[in-house]
Design brief:
This protein has a domain at about 30-59. The chain is about 75% helix and about 0% strand. It has helices at about 10-25, 30-59. This is Ribosome biogenesis protein RLP24-like.
């Protein structure tokens, strides 16, 4: 996965990454580094969504 800004992350893109990761794990690829990177991207996505919700409520 390439680097994304938080605002560029989409849930669909992350879901594709998770599905690809699961497939790689099933065929015994070593994907620990991808697992860590994907977790970081997921956390960034959800944090961005939460921040956007807070900002919308204040406006």
């Amino acid at each position: 996965m390439e680097d994304f800004l938080g605002e560029d992350l989409e849930l669909y893109t992350l879901e594709k990454g998770v599905a690809t990761l699961d497939t790689a794990k099933e065929i015994d690829f070593q994907v620990g580094f991808v697992d860590n990177m994907l977790m970081t991207k997921l956390l960034a996505y959800f944090a961005t969504q939460q921040l956007m919700d807070v900002i919308k409520k204040r406006v």
